């Protein structure tokens, strides 16, 4: 376990970018449609603070989504992060996106929740870091380094960000990955355990 955690910590310390899916990670995956056809999405302010905390540590964030939505564009503008929207094949477009952001795979973390995220997760898993909300697809949960206790849109991004920051802050030790109830599995994944920390009052 010490060797696995040491490797995860080394990756976290060279991190320069966190890529995040939108629907199902920054939102709960639901779209609210009014009688006039207006589509609304719910975002967590705690996740926004996660973006700020990463930025303070010198780590930028970008959103990668297959959808095109003025609401997501507005949220990205509010957070001052790059937005890559309308990306149908995330794995195929990953080299182009990393090139635009001047980032190498070994300096990138990714959090996603659905099958169209698996290609990116598998591409980055060898050198970077990956995570998923607790309500992600089972195949996604089985492929990532860190499984959040929080749900998408309910603080999962913030939890992933805090895990990355803890790994960066101190010499590698199991205690870092065990923070907030996480355990390191035999497969090398840091799995959030204990009670479900979903906060119903998050906005």
What this model shows, in words?
The structure is a single chain. The chain has helices spanning 2-13, 45-56, 70-79, 90-101, 118-125, 138-141, 156-169, 174-177; strands spanning 17-20, 32-33, 39-40, 60-64, 82-84, 108-111, 129-132, 146-147, 182-184, 190-192. With 203 residues, the chain is an alpha/beta fold. The protein contains eight helices and ten strands. Strand 4, helix 3 (70-79) and strand 5 form a beta-alpha-beta unit. It is globular, with a radius of gyration of 16 Å. The strands form two sheets. It has an eight-stranded mixed sheet, with helices on both faces. Helix content is 37%, strand content 16%. Helix 1 crosses helix 7. It starts with a helix and ends in an 11-residue tail after the last strand. Mean pLDDT is 86; it is low at 179-187 and 193-203. The protein has one domain: HAD superfamily/HAD-like (Rossmann fold).
